[in-house]
Amino acid sequence: MPVYGPLSYSLASNILASKALTRWFTPFANWYANLAGYRKYGLKYDDLLIEERDDVQRAITRLTPRETYDRNFRFKRASQASVLHAPLPKEQWVKPEEDVRYLLPHVIEVVKEDTERQMWDTVAVGRK
Amino acid sequence: MLATRASTRNVQRIARSFATVVDSAGVKVAAVDLNQPTSSVTFLVKAGSRFEPKAGVAHGLKNFAFKSTAKRSALGTVRESELYGGVLSTNLSREYLALTADFLRGDEEYFVDVLSSFITSARFTRHEYDEYVKPIIESEIHTNLSDPAVRALELAHALAFRNGLGSSLFASEHPSLTVEDIKAFSQSAFTKGNIAVLGSGISQEVLTKLVDQSLSKLSSSASSSSTPSSYFGGETRIPSHGLQTIFVGFGAAGTPSAELAALSAYVSPTPSVKWSQGLSPIAPSIAPGTSVQNIYIPYSDATLVGFLIQGHESASVKAAGKAAVSALKTASAGLKGDDLKKAVAKAKFTAASAIENREGMISMLGPKVLAGSQASGEANLSPFDKVSESAFAKAASTLLKAKPTYVCVGDISSLPYADELGL
């Protein structure tokens, strides 16, 4: 797995596995996500994934037409807000419950496929 | 002379048949082992275009075969099958979808697993539909329907049987198909009563055991059904490039009869000896460069009999068409003596030689296994011995009394109308 990129090292799964850790980290995580400011510009976290990669590009093609449309709309709205040097009005901010990982499952799927192809390309066949 | 020869000839001796049909966990399993070096297993599913709830779904399902399942991905299926040296193929007819694996003896465990995992746990993902399935559907539609012969037969079926058997084998050019449609169709089609497993070059016990393991969890809800076919007929003219093509024919509802097969064999202009003209009544009227192909397509409850005539010139197609129609009319008045015996012998040979190869055996005997009737070459051929002059005349005249099915594809300004051929 790459150090940088959509599937870089993450401790999230370890933290989510433990109830106590989840309880301690959730307020900190929420505080951090709000501080990052992307929600104020109407973006979701998965809009920030580095998309200049073949696997993420392929994952983007697998979104439903509706998801693709919404993603493009969010980008347009955010760049307009950026031009105006001001966040969006508060009612247009992305709410925490709307901030879902809509792209990540597709990226994971694509990476899995690439890994499998690599495996089959280099597989050594032995006699049973 | 023919009479004595025909009675002594013993076609039945060739043991091309499924000895027994075992009901393994509700799925019918039949196998025949002729000691070939390769084995072949076919899952025959009642999922042809006849049973589709929405146009083109069966075509979509056919092309989804061997894509990712809960057990392995599409790539894994391809690579692993390559390592074993097997061939996976699908074939869609109007009534059945056949999923076939041909492989070396001993690899049956893997290949039966590949076939059954598609039946039980295909994933039907949207991205696979968009990335792999849809382009293939589109290219199949393009290559097949740009062939005027295929196009004419598709149209002939639509005119002859309208719904059910009339529904096209191919999705429409810009299909409104979704993965959900295909998935829903697969769930209704992949049930125990709908599947027959046919093996060749594999022993019955081994196949039964493997099917038992893999398909035991399959749902056993009601099998696919459709309204019984009835014959309508009609005429259509489609402008197109390529060869001038006409289809002239008649259809009949009901179980295919040996009489109609004999009628089709009698008028068949295909000579028994290569490069000769043959004794067919049509042969002298066929101009060089024009082809006349007799069509006899039996289905479980209907038959389509006719001619497919193709040529570069409309005039020669018209001449051949006229000859074909008049030959069909003459034959329908009844055949006498040696003429009938000749026709029956030719039809019987065609039927017997069709089950010589694997695909023929699957397509001829598979439906019988699925229906639970006797699936042997003998049972297939015995009706030919019972064809009598009166039964033949009756079947043929009933056939020709119906409204003809007439399709012309090509230069519609010069191709003949049905009445110009004497229909």
Automatic annotation (TrEMBL), chain A:
<keyword id="KW-0472">Membrane</keyword>
<dbReference type="GO" id="GO:0006122">
    <property type="term" value="P:mitochondrial electron transport, ubiquinol to cytochrome c"/>
</dbReference>
<keyword id="KW-0813">Transport</keyword>
<protein>
    <recommendedName>
        <fullName>Cytochrome b-c1 complex subunit 7</fullName>
    </recommendedName>
</protein>
<dbReference type="GO" id="GO:0045275">
    <property type="term" value="C:respiratory chain complex III"/>
</dbReference>
<dbReference type="Pfam" id="PF02271">
    <property type="entry name" value="UCR_14kD"/>
</dbReference>
<comment type="similarity">
    <text>Belongs to the UQCRB/QCR7 family.</text>
</comment>
<keyword id="KW-0249">Electron transport</keyword>
<dbReference type="GO" id="GO:0005743">
    <property type="term" value="C:mitochondrial inner membrane"/>
</dbReference>
<comment type="function">
    <text>Component of the ubiquinol-cytochrome c oxidoreductase, a multisubunit transmembrane complex that is part of the mitochondrial electron transport chain which drives oxidative phosphorylation.</text>
</comment>
<dbReference type="InterPro" id="IPR003197">
    <property type="entry name" value="QCR7"/>
</dbReference>
<keyword id="KW-0999">Mitochondrion inner membrane</keyword>
<keyword id="KW-0679">Respiratory chain</keyword>
<keyword id="KW-0496">Mitochondrion</keyword>
<dbReference type="InterPro" id="IPR036544">
    <property type="entry name" value="QCR7_sf"/>
</dbReference>
UniProtKB/TrEMBL annotation, chain B:
<dbReference type="InterPro" id="IPR011249">
    <property type="entry name" value="Metalloenz_LuxS/M16"/>
</dbReference>
<dbReference type="Pfam" id="PF00675">
    <property type="entry name" value="Peptidase_M16"/>
</dbReference>
<keyword id="KW-0472">Membrane</keyword>
<keyword id="KW-0496">Mitochondrion</keyword>
<dbReference type="GO" id="GO:0005743">
    <property type="term" value="C:mitochondrial inner membrane"/>
</dbReference>
<feature type="domain" description="Peptidase M16 N-terminal">
    <location>
        <begin position="29"/>
        <end position="170"/>
    </location>
</feature>
<dbReference type="InterPro" id="IPR050361">
    <property type="entry name" value="MPP/UQCRC_Complex"/>
</dbReference>
<keyword id="KW-0809">Transit peptide</keyword>
<keyword id="KW-0813">Transport</keyword>
<dbReference type="InterPro" id="IPR011765">
    <property type="entry name" value="Pept_M16_N"/>
</dbReference>
<dbReference type="GO" id="GO:0046872">
    <property type="term" value="F:metal ion binding"/>
</dbReference>
<protein>
    <recommendedName>
        <fullName>Cytochrome b-c1 complex subunit 2, mitochondrial</fullName>
    </recommendedName>
</protein>
<keyword id="KW-0999">Mitochondrion inner membrane</keyword>
<comment type="similarity">
    <text>Belongs to the peptidase M16 family. UQCRC2/QCR2 subfamily.</text>
</comment>
<keyword id="KW-0249">Electron transport</keyword>
<keyword id="KW-0679">Respiratory chain</keyword>
